Amino acid sequence: MSHPADKPATYDDLLAVPDHLVAELIHGQLHTTPRPAPHHALASTTLGAELVNPYGKGRGGPGGWWILIEPELHLGPHVLVPDLAGWRKTRMPSLPSSAWFETPPDWVCEILSPSTASLDRTQKMPLYAHYGVGHLWLVDPAVRILEAYELRQGRWTLLETLADDAEVSLPPFDATRFSLAELWA
């Protein structure tokens, strides 16, 4: 006996999720994860701080970017919430008036945690590639690693894996340097 197909989740389903959860729509399924734990939040906040002044504000760096924490991306039928994302101002001169972004970012960063790592790697990474995000960083606070990827011919190419207290100067943010150790508690 066949079972009726599950009804795809909608944006209304996403809006009904309690505020203490992060909600995303991927391939018609609603995915919820807890708000970031302290080590995850510290890595995200610190990385954002390292990038905003030189790239977002042009203080000690080239400027020309919008760098945002947890923006809501509407990419086709999918709603994704990366931990950090960045857009070159040449591609997106002003921020949208909506609560979400339909322009794919030029860079995304996912801070991996036990509750998100599988989803980030198996579902979101391919979608970021499909929608033309040029650079992706995966940061894992538990093992103190940053993996930097670049989209080449529609596929992710690993540029470098950095660990512990390595100096970070990676595309697309290779005009400045900071210590990876700043991200760890």
Please give the number of β-strands.
12
Number of helices: 3
Biggest sheet strand order reads 3-6-7-8-9-10
Estimate nothing, just give the exact number of structural domains.
1
Order of helices and strands: HEEHEEEEEHEEEEE
CATH fold-level assignment? tt1808, chain A
What is the CATH superfamily classification? tt1808, chain A
Q: What integer is the average pLDDT? A: 95
Rg over CA atoms: 17 Å
| Computed structural class | alpha+beta
Helix content: 10-25%
Catalogue the unreliable spans: none
Shape: globular
CATH class: Alpha Beta
CATH architecture: Alpha-Beta Complex
Strand content: 35-45%
- Kindly, what is the distance between the CA atoms of the first and last residues, rounded to a whole number of angstroms? 54 Å
Tell me the major beta sheet. 6 strands, mixed
Strand and helix layout:
Elements: H1 11-15, E1 21-26, E2 29-34, H2 38-57, E3 65-69, E4 73-75, E5 78-80, E6 84-88, E7 107-111, H3 117-130, E8 135-140, E9 145-152, E10 155-163, E11 167-170, E12 173-179
Parallel strand pairs: 7-8
Antiparallel strand pairs: 1-2, 3-6, 4-5, 6-7, 8-9, 9-10, 11-12
